[in-house]
Specification:
It is a single chain. The chain has 403 residues and is α/β, with parallel strands linked by helices. The chain is 38% helix and 16% strand. The chain is built from 12 helices and 11 strands. The strands form 2 sheets. The chain has a 6-stranded antiparallel beta sheet. A 5-stranded parallel beta sheet has the order 9-8-7-10-11, sandwiched between helices. Bound molecules: flavin-adenine dinucleotide and protoporphyrin IX containing FE (HEM). The site of flavin-adenine dinucleotide has 22 residues, from β4, β5 and α7. Flavin-adenine dinucleotide binds next to β4, β5 and α7.
Length: 403
């Protein structure tokens, strides 16, 4: 490695507390010097201003063990084609990163520091652009999918069936990113709700977040026949298909989307499965016709509904789920899949460990350190909240060991 990671760490420590200002300066610099690049980003940058910037700085700081970033950077580079990021944009982003860091570093900036950041950025952007170039012949940059069916499953939730129009290979347990012309260039992840189908369609379940840019458009705006843009599938909370073990799956809210896809996959090679479906209240349980149909069709499947009466507190819902899991005794020897709000998933991991579950057999999407946060974090917050990063999957990096 040509640069000294310690130089980068010390340099970042100088600007870290003013990260928000540095990010603002970074984007102002980028857009002022490259006006064409502004059109690639969402109109409203308030929510995601720090996404790219946070990622850049955190990645540079992780370069101490570059081999652990290889797979992640390749995936990120491939995925950046959906943002219409071109190879020639990378030097521009790098120049703005350096300009922003320099501006806020004061006396701490010197030629050695500048060289270290430049070289680190070069390593990252090379890995991303190489992967993007290679992907050109292997995978579309995005899929323009038509909404073939739209079903309101509850007051604030829709199930959308999407036809990607060309092959869209994915594995149950994965999620996809979605963008709609109704919220231009705003990309958000949604779990894929089904196993692969003969007609190639995929379902997503979207719950409206009050004031949410994309979910509001998807729940209240879009109509059948309209197009949504999809990024390539991602995520590694996948079923061990060869496993002889019984399965426990716990879903909270739209977590049922991912769990439903896994249940459909188990049906291809049945084994005993118990699914706990948690919701804040009876009214929040949705898709029950499909749940009943799956239970009727599959003798190996048991579903436990865990939702308090309408009007109950969030705590009651959590308690019901918790007690239900405890009453069943030990979960030793089960493959376990958890999907739902990060707070719920984190708590269930802790509970199930005390009920005999083998941690290596517990699967879920990567979790941030939430503190008392009750909503999912934006990808940038995942990044900034803790060393463990939303986009950086611990498995890809070789286990739990942190950089
Ligand atoms: C891996 C992954 C899979 C996901 N799968 C699904 C899925 O299957 N179905 C689904 O509906 N959503 C899912 N989400 C959440 C989804 O990606 C969006 O975050 C959500 O739809 C809100 O986006 P938005 O653009 O409407 O809100 P934004 O415009 O991003 O947010 C608007 C405001 O609401 C806050 N906020 C964001 N999300 C929530 C929330 N859930 N509760 C309360 N406040 C919030 C934001 O901080 C912000 O202040 C998933 C997220 C991840 C990371
Ligand atoms: C080494 C360089 C780069 C790194 C590490 C990087 C990293 C990231 C990450 C992690 C995200 C968030 C992804 C997500 O939310 O799913 C992101 C978003 C984005 N990036 Fe990059 N990026 C780089 C270069 C570029 C370049 C050169 C462009 C083109 C100008 C670009 C354009 C975008 C856009 C448009 C978004 C979405 C904006 C948003 O939602 O806020 N990136 N980047």
């Amino acid at each position: 490695m040509a640069f000294d990671p310690a130089v980068l760490r010390d340099s970042f420590a100088v600007v870290e507390r003013r990260a928000d200002h540095v990010a603002k300066y970074f984007y102002a610099h980028l857009f002022a010097h490259n006006p064409g690049v502004r059109a690639l980003f969402p109109d409203d940058m308030a929510e995601q201003r720090d996404r790219l910037f946070a990622a850049l700085t955190q990645l540079v700081l992780r370069l101490e063990k570059p081999e652990r970033l290889t797979a992640y950077l390749a995936a990120l580079g491939r995925d950046h084609r959906k943002f219409e990021a071109l190879p020639e944009h990378y030097p521009a982003v790098g120049a703005s990163l350096i300009a922003a860091l320099k501006h806020f570093s004061g006396q701490a900036w010197n030629p050695e520091v500048e060289k270290a950041w430049s070289e680190a950025y070069a390593v990252i952007s090379q890995a991303m652009t190489d992967a993007a170039r290679q992907a050109e012949t292997e995978q579309p940059a995005w899929w323009d999918a038509r909404i073939t069916h739209r079903r309101r499953a509850s007051a604030d939730l829709v199930v959308l069936t999407l036809d990607p129009g060309r092959p869209y290979p994915f594995t149950p347990g994965q999620y996809l990113s979605v963008c709609s012309p109704r919220a231009a260039r705003v990309w958000r992840p949604y779990s894929i709700a089904n196993a692969p189908r003969a007609d190639g369609t995929v379902d997503i379940h979207v719950r409206r977040v009050p004031g949410g840019l994309l979910s509001t458009a998807l729940v209240d705006g879009v109509t059948e026949g309209e197009s949504l843009r999809l990024g390539a599938p991602m995520g590694s909370s996948l079923l061990d298909r060869e496993s002889p073990r019984p399965l426990l799956a716990v879903a909270g809210g739209t977590g049922w989307s991912q769990i439903g896809a896994l249940v459909e996959q188990v049906a291809e090679r049945p084994r005993p499965a118990v699914v706990f479906l948690g919701a804040r209240s009876d009214a929040d349980l949705y898709d029950l016709d499909r749940v009943r149909e799956l239970v009727d069709r599959h003798p190996w499947l048991e579903v436990v509904l865990a939702a308090p009466e309408d009007g109950a507190s969030r705590d009651e819902a959590a308690l019901l789920l918790r007690n239900g899991l405890i009453e069943r005794g030990s979960w030793a020897g089960y493959d376990i899949h958890l999907s739902g709000p990060p707070g719920m998933v984190g708590e269930l991991v802790r509970l199930l460990r005390t009920r005999g579950a083998d941690e290596k057999l517990i699967h879920h999407d990567p979790l941030p350190d939430l503190g008392d946060q009750s909503r999912p974090l934006t990808p940038a917050e995942w990044f900034l909240a803790r060393p463990e990063v939303h986009w950086i999957n611990a498995a890809q990096l070789g286990g739990d060991e942190r950089a």
